[in-house]
Input
Amino acid sequence: MASNKYNDDFLGKRAANFTPLTPISFIERTARVHPHHTAIIDGDLRQSWGDTYRRCRKAADALIKRGVCKDDTIAVLCPNTAAAVEVAFSVPLSGGVLNMINTRLDAASLAFILDHGEATVFMVDQGLSDLAAAALELADVKPLVIDIEDSTLGEPGAAIGSLTYEDLIAEGDACGQRRLPEDEWDAIALNYTSGTTGNPKGVVYHHRGAYLNGLGEGVEWALPHHPVYLWTLPLFHCNGWCFPWTVAAYAGTNVCLRAPEAGAILDSIKANNISHMCGAPIILNMVTTEAESRGEKLPWPVKMMTAGAAPPAAVLARSEAIGFDVIHVYGLTEVYGPTGVCAWKQQWNELPADQQAELKSRQGVPYVVQEEMVVLDSDTLQATAMDGQTMGEIMFRGNAVMKGYLKNPEATEKAFAGGYFHSEDLAVVHPDNYAEIKDRSKDIIISGGENISSIEVEGVLYRLPCVATAAVVAAPDEKWGETPWAFIELAEGQSATCDEVIAFCREHLARFKCPSHVVFGDIPKTSTGKIQKFELRKKIAEQLRD
Output
């Protein structure tokens, strides 16, 4: 007979042996252990971890005194400044749910988010006050508005709040009230998807997932103690991929940057001894191009974590030539940002540079904190063959997966169908068990019954020295059903013709995969550098109508 001796009542959870996991614990430990180590650099500001924690405690206490209750939504519209780092801790300490909002949205989208999340407090950087004021005119909610002042701004916008962020902190007591989660499943953050079709969905994070993925970033990157992290990734994007919490856990330094400009990034790397940074492949390409134009290499190897799309092998090779040590990760808003990684194998170091770049562009395997990242048939949920050719859908299962979509049970049930989170990214699995995305399900081009991966075609286009950015989408075709159209942003000082581009593609691709049309010009992107292919499809429709 099976014994239940390990389930006796006296072996249950108690205060001494169980505490809900929360990333708040990271800043509390670091403030105790490294109180004088620099936590934040923002312009002329140098702020220690001890001072940062005291400010966060004071802000939390002040929010509670002003009526913030558990699970109240605290919306924040702010670029990568010191305040944006602090709210990652002060808002959860108040029991509120942090809603970092995309700073590049229009007023109507902002108003939707404020209403949908039922914001009770709205913190606004004064450089964005005009946009926020327009959104508040459209919104139904009437939150407490707090102005975030920034000394690095030349001409800040008009104050629209009833108090400033510094006024709020002055109202609080560093030894005053705070609310730690009673349950690690409690919500910690609300993040809205890009909303390329219809209104964006509100993705709800829990304390457990934020804690685990915050540590997971450090584990997968083998972060050293006291990293110096440059904020080139927007803090509103998946809470900065959980890196405010990661940097706190490793007692690092947050170096703030209001805008990810190539020149400013290179200058900050040298001025602040940057060791680590993150961003979409477009950031990697942009900084690499700037360094090449200056005739410079990085003063020391800088570790760069990139995600958002498969980085083209040509961009990876160029960036590593100037001194970036690139790690490629993969994820979505719904899984706390990156939660898959192209875990590097030592034997790959012996391969030629071009083969290494090809391998590094794979999405790889799940983080150690994520239970599963698998490629399954979307309908049967059966694993696809590990042959590098058979496509399926990437799906996740584990603790670093969202609670669900706020107020959207239908979308939540659909996303979690069959016990997995469905990414809608189509991928193959190689014999070594590494996944490689071939396309979004909606971006696959079906021409004459053949599937064409837009990513594969884009990878070839990026081999052209004249190409700064490339995107390939499907265009309707009377004969083939669909054919690929290529959109290209040329590198500065470069030129090319449609015929030259198509001829190059025919040298490296099967003819049916080659673009039938090439369009030169600016390519629309999101604030995080993702190419907005739905806008390109609109352009195609307009051209075909004309």
Notes: The radius of gyration is 24 Å. Residues 370 and 398 are 5 Å apart (CA to CA). Residues 49-65 form the longest helix (17 residues).
